[in-house]
Amino acid sequence: AAKYMGGYKVARNLIANLVESMGITVPVAIHLDHGHYEDALECIEVGYTSIMFDGSHLPVEENLKLAKEVVEKAHAKGISVEAEVGTIGGEEDGIIGKGELAPIEDAKAMVETGIDFLAAGIGNIHGPYPVNWEGLDLDHLQKLTEALPGFPIVLHGGSGIPDEQIQAAIKLGVAKVNVNT
């Protein structure tokens, strides 16, 4: 949405001004979701509180390299980083995913970049779920969480996933669920 509002700095300043003018006293997070590399760097520079760098559409080695660079720059400013391996089906902010399962070795390599949260393809998609959707691959999620004990996994595309599957995913280690209705 920020790109339609005049840019990331304008959006950040708008939020900061709203917080001040409304007397909001609880912490307010400003999060970039599914950002390309350049967008992530810009949001780090202007003071977002968290970044979701999405290089899942890139070759895995390039995704890992850029994620590590984002982590170094973000962590230097106290900003948390989420990154994606595998691809989450559907389209989000111009990034189109085919819905591939996240390879375990790629997930481990991504965690080694220093990220704080991992978005991993486990059969989830952005947008409406088709009637023939087979559900989350909970067996694959279990393999991921066993390979990355205690590491926070993010489930994107939460809208439309049946509650019992979301609950099962949380029991298996999902720490954050993104919804967009």
From TrEMBL:
Alphabetical keyword list: Lyase
Annotated PROSITE patterns: ALDOLASE_CLASS_II_1, ALDOLASE_CLASS_II_2
EC number: 4.1.2.13
GO molecular function: fructose-bisphosphate aldolase activity; zinc ion binding
Highest taxon, organism lineage: Bacteria
Enzyme class (EC, first level): lyase
One of the protein's GO biological processes: carbohydrate metabolic process
Pfam families recorded: F_bP_aldolase
Gene3D superfamilies cross-referenced by the UniProt entry: Aldolase class I
Lyase is among the record's keywords: yes
Cofactor annotation: Zn(2+)
Name of the molecule in the record: Fructose-bisphosphate aldolase
